Amino acid sequence: xxxxxxxxxxxxxxxxxxxxMAAGKALKESSLPAVTQELVALxxxxxxxxxxxxxxxxxxxxxxxETAVRLHLVTAWREATVFTEAERAALELAExxxxxxxxxxGVSDEVWARAAKHYDEDQLTALVMLVAFMNTTNRLNxxxxxxxxxxxxxxxxxxxxxxxRGETPSAP
Length: 172
Known about the structure:
The protein is 66% helix and 0% strand. It is mainly alpha-helical.
């Protein structure tokens, strides 16, 4: 299966993608713990059914030392005992922030308060932006039918670096 579009090669999307990927890099460098970022990115992608992002974030998290048990249980985090209270609060916020049409109210005050108990304002900002970023990324990939399974750890960082230098990325 081939993707319908190659956003990295499309002249009309090139400038926007460069800025979009820079935003992703800035989020990755934020004070929000890297483990939390990968868990949130994975959960948002699971909810949205974005195979390409599930592939990427599962592999990136595993390469960073995340256990297979925790990765397998992200989808059922409420019943799993392997996540910290902070991680659970971030996953709950991510779910409500992703399922805005389902919930009708967005993120509840209770969910926000639980997240605010564990994360400072800078981390909360990064968390909210990460949820929005992942929802956008998922939609771009789903619309273009980006295939999954061939992602190699570090590919996203290499693409971001190429774009930052003004070069055409070496990988699609």
